[in-house]
Fold:
Amino acid sequence: MTLIAITKPVPPTINECELSHMDRQPIDVMRAQEQHAEYERALEAIGCTIERLPIEAANPDSVFVEDSAIVLPEIAIITRPGAPSRRGETASVAATLRRYRSLSAIEEPATLDGGDVLCIGKRIFVGRSARTNDAGIGQLRTIVETFGYDVEPVPVTACLHLKSAVTQVSDAAVLLNRKWIDASCFRRFEIIDVDDAEPQAANALFVRGRVMFPRAFPRTRETLERRGIAVDTIDASELAKAEGGLTCCSIIVESV
Ligand code: CIR
Structure:
């Protein structure tokens, strides 16, 4: 089985990105591009083939491809991002995913961002957030229930997306910030708390049994390692200024 990681380059316009829970700070575009290249190399090192789509200068947030699609083994669902400025990002992702999966799409008036969707086995947690509405959750449920998935909504108010507050870090464990979401939704899993001093540390990328993790959060990294979870760290500090984490910068597709 091959793992494809779909990415898009950091556009020169990234300083015009959407921001919801952070103050705007200047983003050094070259540094962001270098960090993004390091991210792609880290994915390659764990066996992913990078499929880099063309740069989209007209879409300041286009590097955050995760928000454009949900990919399951059976189907890919093209989203309708909650921020109107981001709706132009989905076409190129759909054109690529069509080669790997049959496609379905979230339709108006529904909105759904990929960052709000956390799939663990046959359970799909979906953040009800400023970006993802009830119609989006409902349409997703209708599409995936035929394949045997359960959809569980999780309220998200304190941060941008569900995956800003919780991600999977092993077959059995999630890394979570319980100040931002209700941890009881994840009671079936072993819960690892982010360090109190690192509220933004919950977004880790779990691929092929490995965890890619931002270098900016050494205390949470220590907690993960104490719990037996080895991590590869990368510097994603410039992309973090655009409110993006590690999961946001790729769409992982298992291809047979
Ligand atoms: C936004 O606000 O849409 C972007 N500046 C950040 C998106 C990050 N995406 C993600 O967490 N999945």
